[in-house]
Predict the 3D structure of the following.
Amino acid sequence: MEIAGQVLVLIGAIFLFLGSLGIIRMPDVFNRLQAGTKATTLGALSLIIGVGLMNTAFLWKAIVLVVFVVLTNPISSSTIARASYKMKVPMFKGTIKKMEESFLEEEEK
Amino acid sequence: MIITISLILIGIAVFLSFLRLLIGPTVSDRLLAADTLTTITAASIVLVAFVLGRLIYMDVAIVYAVIGFVGVVTVARYLEGGI
């Protein structure tokens, strides 16, 4: 139990570090959203569950926090993506624009 | 040992996200960096609660996650023009 918790904590910290490295590295707002939200969600999930496994008194509140983070982090990511798309933030120059045109047609109807 | 390595990694992660919060070219970059900082801080509060052995800090982490989510969604809706 102790070893599994420590391994989960280490995996979570590595994923948090990789997510923020992607935030620095990626060229575009939408690419940064991919790196900064998904990797960070997995990292926080793994780290909090690992802490709950290492000390069993923390487990129930850890489960509550994990459920909340997993439910609300995609919502905030989607809201940021929608806002920056409607503000017409400039995209990376290699972006394929096919999906965007279909989305624009659906908006006009 | 593993806890120390994890705390160092989380410190580097906070530094990189804060760098993006400072130099971000658009408003969306800064908002995204703030959202990531919220999640990283909630996770690190849980780790600090384990290190110090205090169960009450878990409540602090839960409330911090709630308030950060509401703040990010509010600012994003304001930028979109919904409010």
